[in-house]
Design a protein that fits this description.
The protein starts with about 35 loop residues before the first helix and ends in a 27-residue tail after the last helix. The protein is extended and about 135 Å long. The C terminus is likely disordered. The chain has about 1200 residues and is mostly helical. The protein contains 56 helices and no strands. InterPro entries: ARM-like, ARM-type_fold, CND1/NCAPD3, Cnd1_C, Condensin_cplx_su1, Condensin_cplx_su1_N. GO terms for molecular function: histone binding. It comes from Cyprinus carpio (Common carp).
Length: about 1200
């Protein structure tokens, strides 16, 4: 009897009889009976037993959870062998299969792969004969595909270790799609998998790409793209993670089969106007892949070029997308297009201009991507290897003049022989008349009668027909009529020398193309130069990745010789001191790439190039730049390099003059030798005689700057080597810096004293020299002499330790008294020398009255160089002892405030900073005078002041007080460098515990003072920056209370408004809001002012948006109360509340209880207000003697 085996939907269907002759399981065995039945079946018939013992296999599946593992393994082996063997027998294929040994259920991965491979082999066979009418049932297709999709839901399917299983599943599904009409089902299932399993995006993309390319089912790509493209914004909003999966799927698919996506890419463009930024990014990436891999090159047809331009315009629009992530990704897509050289030349200018504009984007990620794109533009530009607009100007002007000459000469050319149109007409007129008459001859009399009956309008139409017939005749008879006779308006053409004219036109076109190329190159170079100015400022941003990209851009721009690119290279040099290791390494690698890895044919040429590069960098470099470069050069000489010997040789040749070298390059060479000496002292010591004879010999007067730089080089090795210089006859102080000798200094002073009465310049030189001698004498005492004293003390202590027993001094050593007392004695000894001997009865003391005279008589000594030298020398004298400092401190501050020379004021600020470090107690009362220079009219003075004060405050030399408000004002300084230094000051100050938090109330009071007259917009900008440093909840709560209390002492409406704005800038939380309610009495009477009401209302609005339901009710009540007081007035609202409380005593308000307004308000004083009453600048007759104590009635500091 034959049975019909119907594929079951679930396991239980095999025991239910649903149709005639349907096969059903007759007997379900128990767990105990299974082992014996399976062994019997295998021994009796082998794999063929599945045909008779199917009930046994079904029983194993029924008891799968409780049956023994060995039974499962035997059943699996039986099913695999029987499955293959029986299908092969049915198809008469005679296939053989090796026995598959079970490896245990713990290795399901390998077993799964085996099954999938068997299933693949099965599906590749022609199994249609298994079904009636040779149609594969849908149930079979669903059974196989559902198993595959279920396997894809495994979380580990996308891992590398599952690659073989993943590929097998994709191949099985590919066969089902191609041979079993599963394409639509696969499309639906792929969409469902993406909706529910975000991690399957790459797997689904690989599957679809495989089905399209390997199995030739390209239509499935379009179907899936249409399904995604037809989803509305509402559906995507409900998808959640599915949107990200769709985006990743499209991006991955575009990298695999971009050409297949082009026909259906229009269905995705609708999502560019949607609300999902991730889908917009995906569509832009698809466009980018298509442009790079398909629509690139010069061999595109017209339709492909139109599509390319349309896609580029679409990408270009989204450079200004509303979402920052989209903007950044579009810029990255453009960077890939540029790197692949797929961007048309006509688009360079537009995209370049848009990219430069994105450098000012508020998103750091966008700025970083814009820098990368600009670097790609420079590296792959189609114009020139050197992009200097200055170098391009002259060639452009030259070629434009040549083009103009060519055009003028072409206009002046006269044709040799010309046949006019009238002559041509006379020649062809007889023949033309005969032809026209023959063509228009009437055919019959009836036609003539009909023509006569026609109206005037018909006659006009007949004339037109006649003209058309004439034109048709002329077209059909080109051999009879020359082209020149077609139009009488045609310009005369020469009949001779035609070939020469064509050659001139081709030359003209070539010249026009050359001029256009130079114009495009110049425009591109100008855009790059414009971007350099912006990117140079990004070198000191907080974001490490942006700084790294800016460094790489500066390197690329410098390699392409962009104008002003060396400014960026120099500006990033101080970053070698950065605490961020990645930034420091980036800068070092950049300088190695630019300067320390030269190109050349041999070692000599490489060394020459390296020295040229470093010398160019040293020219006009500041002291800070030289110090930073010294770090890099010393590191180069510390490492082992084959170029070191050749580089040193080239430097010595330049310095000694063996090769003709400019004076600037000679000075750079000697400085570079000094840098090398830091790493290897023998570089200078081996040629010390040459160094002295060349720079300090008879020709020293020819270049004093070379002598100065030589002495600086010698200073790098004088710590442990005693250098003797025989000839020293210079008239500047740099000789004193390197070589300290009392007799030499006296000799120098006497030499200058001989020229003392010649002119003011000579007097300035001698005063400057005296100051330098005084300063370096103090330095010599505190460094060299002090070090020598310590060395002698150490030797003495070692000697005494050997002589004495350890027991005698163990107590003193434990207490640390021996070393401490000896060190104090040495310090006191040096201090006594400075106070009693340096300025008593010697030549230095003789010049001190002259210095005071010059500084105190600006009217008499008005020479700028003399005044500058005298003030600087006086400050150096004041470094010697506290007595000299006290006697002249008032004079120095008078010079600081009243000197008309900015350079004098700037030098004085630097000197006062040094004096503050040396004598802090003397300078402390004069602190307000230093802060006052932050508002100096000269930008150089403000710059110097902010730099000095930053060092003093951040190194805890000077206490931070309310005068820091003057630094806050510099955040809006018109000079960008000063504003950046002020911002850096607060960034560093915020790292100190609660520093800005403690200063904010005083800063607000000072900036909102009516006498200052600060604009409201400026105040808001400064406060927004300062409040960004307040991040702790407790600090916010405390500041709310402090600022509310300030309403009581504020006197003007503008002060009220400033306080309210400051409150609105805080990130007020629930606790801060409660504190705001508790302080209602402080500001409630000011709510009638819009400047107070609006900021407080904005605080409530912010709280309401993110508040919980219970807290939201409190916020809404507070808003109603604010609005009521603002519209009705405080007294009216209080009366209404009082009446309501009297009428209904049971009701309770959520408002904070308030004291009766009839009670007198307590007077509250603040330290900042007390300080404001006293003038910071003292009168001429007064000198501050002690530090003004700071008294506060109540002050709470946070310690955490």
């Amino acid at each position: 009897m034959s049975w019909d085996f119907i594929l079951p939907v679930c396991l239980g269907d095999l025991v239910k009889s649903g149709a005639v002759n349907q096969y059903v399981v007759q007997d379900v065995l128990s767990v105990k009976q299974l082992p014996s039945h399976i062994n019997t079946a295998l021994r009796s018939q082998g794999p063929l037993c599945i045909l008779e013992y199917f009930d046994t296999a079904y029983s194993v599946l029924q008891h799968c959870r409780t049956v023994d593992v060995a039974v499962k393994e035997d059943t699996l082996e039986l099913l695999i062998q029987g499955y293959i063997l029986n299908i092969s027998l049915c198809l008469s294929q005679g296939r053989k299969k090796d026995k598959v040994a079970g490896k245990g259920l713990l290795q399901w991965d390998s077993e799964r792969e085996t099954i999938l491979q068997c299933l693949t082999q099965l599906l590749q066979l022609d199994i249609r004969t298994l079904w009636s009418l040779s149609l594969v049932e849908e149930e079979f297709v669903s059974c196989v595909t559902c198993c595959c999709y279920k396997l894809l839901e495994n979380p580990t399917i996308s891992h590398v270790k599952s690659k073989s299983t993943r590929d097998a599943i994709i191949h099985v599904l590919g066969i089902m799609v191609k041979k079993y009409n599963h394409m639509l089902g696969a499309c639906v299932k792929v969409i469902q998998l993406l909706q529910h399993f975000e991690q399957l995006a790459s797997v689904c993309a690989a599957a679809v790409a495989s089905w399209s390319s390997e199995y030739g089912v390209k239509a499935i790509v379009g179907e899936i793209m249409r399904e995604i493209g037809q989803k509305s914004s509402e559906e995507l909003a409900r998808e959640g993670s599915g949107v990200k999966a769709f985006s990743s799927f499209l991006s991955e698919l575009s990298t695999l089969v971009p050409e297949t996506m082009i026909p259906n890419i229009s269905v995705l463009l609708t999502h560019l106007e949607g609300e999902s930024p991730s889908l917009r990014v995906a569509v832009c990436e698809v466009l980018g892949e298509v442009l790079v891999r398909v629509l690139s090159g010069d061999k595109l047809d017209d339709s492909a070029r139109a599509s390319r331009d349309r896609f580029l315009d679409t990408l270009q629009e989204h450079i200004h997308d509303a979402h920052s992530h989209v903007r950044a990704r579009v810029l990255q897509v453009y960077a890939r297009i540029v790197n692949s050289k797929a961007l048309p030349l006509c688009k360079y200018t537009e995209v370049m201009e848009l990219t430069v504009g994105r450098l000012g984007d508020k998103s750091v990620h966008v700025c970083k991507s814009a820098i990368q794109l600009l670097a790609a533009f420079i590296a792959h530009n189609p114009y020139s290897c050197k992009l200097s607009s200055v170098d391009l100007t002259k060639p452009l002007e030259k070629e434009m003049a040549k083009l103009k000459e060519m055009r003028d000469s072409q206009k002046e050319q006269v044709p040799v022989a010309v046949i006019t149109a009238a002559d041509l007409w006379d020649a062809m007129k007889p023949e033309l008349e005969m032809t026209v008459k023959a063509q228009l001859e009437p055919g019959s009399e009836e036609e003539d009668n009909e023509d006569e009956e026609e109206t005037g309008g018909d006659e006009e139409r007949s004339d037109r027909d006649t003209a058309l017939q004439i034109a048709q005749f002329l077209r059909e008879s080109p051999e009879q009529v020359t082209p020149e006779a077609v139009s009488s308006d045609a310009p005369p053409t020469p009949q001779k020398e035609g070939g020469g004219n064509e050659g001139g036109e081709s030359e003209l076109k070539k010249q026009e193309m050359l001029v256009q190329y130079l114009k495009d190159t110049e425009s591109f170079a100008l855009q790059v130069e414009r971007s350099i100015a912006v990117i140079n400022n990004m070198l000191y941003w907080k974001t490490t990745t942006v700084v790294q990209e800016a460094v790489q851009f500066c390197v690329t721009a410098f390699e392409f010789s962009v104008a002003n690119s060396v400014c960026g290279v120099r500006k990033m040099l101080p970053l070698v001191w950065s605490t961020d290791v990645t930034i420091k390494d980036s800068v070092i690698q950049a300088y190695r790439r630019l300067y320390l890895n030269p190109h050349g044919d041999n070692t000599r040429a490489k060394a020459q190039t390296l020295v040229d590069n470093l010398s160019d960098l040293m020219i006009d470099a500041s002291l800070g730049t030289v110090q930073c470069l010294e770090e890099i050069v010393s590191e180069f000489f510390s490492s082992e390099s084959a170029l070191q010997t050749s580089v040193v040789q080239v430097l010595w040749e330049r310095f000694s003059g063996k090769r003709e070298t400019k004076a600037l390059h000679r000075r750079a060479a000697v400085l570079l030798l000094g840098m090398a000496a830091r790493a290897e002292r023998e570089v200078v010591l081996s040629n010390l005689d040459t160094l002295c004879s060349v720079a300090l010999g008879e020709k020293v007067a020819e270049d004093y700057l070379l002598a100065r730089d030589t002495l600086i080089t010698i200073a790098n090795i004088t710590d442990h080597v005693r250098v003797c210089v025989h000839i020293l006859c210079m008239n500047c102080q740099f000789g004193v810096i390197t070589i300290y000798a009392k007799q030499v200094c006296i000799c120098l002073i006497k030499m200058q004293q001989k020229q003392l009465y010649l002119n003011c310049v000579s007097l300035a030189q001698v005063l400057s020299l005296c100051g330098a001698v005084a300063f370096w004498q103090v330095s010599h005492l505190e460094r060299s002499v002090s070090a020598e004293l310590r060395r002698r003390r150490g030797e003495k202590e070692e000697k005494e330790e050997k002589e004495k027993d350890a027991n005698d001094s163990c107590v003193e050593e434990e207490l640390g008294l021996v070393g401490a007392s000896a060190e104090d004695t040495e310090v006191e000894f040096i201090r006594k020398i400075c106070e009693t001997e340096l300025l008593s009865g010697n030549m230095l003391s003789a010049f001190l009255p002259l210095l005071v005279k010059v500084c105190s008589s600006p009217g008499k000594y008005s020479h700028s160089q003399l005044t500058t030298a005298a003030c600087l020398a006086l400050s150096q004298y004041m470094m010697i002892s506290p007595a000299v400092c006290k006697d002249n401190i008032r004079l120095l501050f008078t010079v600081l405030e009243k000197s008309p020379l900015p350079v004098v004021r700037a030098n004085t600020i630097v000197a006062l900073g040094d004096l503050t470090v040396r004598f802090p107690n003397i300078l402390e009362p004069w602190t307000p005078n230093l802060y006052a220079r932050l508002s100096d009219e000269s930008a150089s003075v403000r710059l110097t002041a902010i730099m000095v004060l930053t060092q003093l405050v951040l190194k805890d030399v000077m206490k931070v007080k309310g005068q820091v408000s003057e630094v806050a004002v510099l955040l809006l300084d018109p000079e960008p460098h000063i504003a950046s230094l002020a911002l850096n000051f607060f960034n560093e100050l915020s790292a100190k515990d609660n520093a800005i938090y403690n200063l904010l109330p005083d800063i607000i009071s000072r900036l909102s003072d009516p006498e200052r007259g600060m604009k409201e917009e400026d105040f808001n900008t400064i406060m927004k920056q300062l409040f960004s440093y307040i991040t702790k909840e407790r600090q916010t709560e405390s500041l709310v209370e402090k600022l509310c209390q300030r309403f009581r002492t504020a006197k003007t409406e503008q002060q009220w408004a400033d306080l309210a704005v400051s409150l609105s800038l805080l990130s007020v939380c629930e606790r801060g809001f409660k504190k705001l309610q508790e302080c209602w009495d402080c500001y409630s009477d000011k709510l009638t002012e819009p400047g107070v009401y609006q900021p407080l209302l904005s605080i409530a609005a912010k709280l309401r948006r993110r508040a919980k339901p219970q807290f939201k009710a409190h916020v809404e009540d507070y808003e109603k109360r604010l609005t009521a007081v603002h519209t009705k007035g405080l007294e009216n609202v209080d009366n209404e509340e009082r009446e309501q409380q009297m009428g209904d005593t049971q009701s309770q308000n959520l408002q904070t209880p308030r004291k009766s307004r009839s009670r007198p308000k307590p007077a509250i004083t603040f330290s900042s207000d007390e300080e404001e009453e006293d003038d910071a600048v003292m009168a001429e007759s007064e000198t501050p003697k002690v530090t003004t104590p700071i008294a506060r009635t109540r002050r709470t500091r946070l310690r955490h």
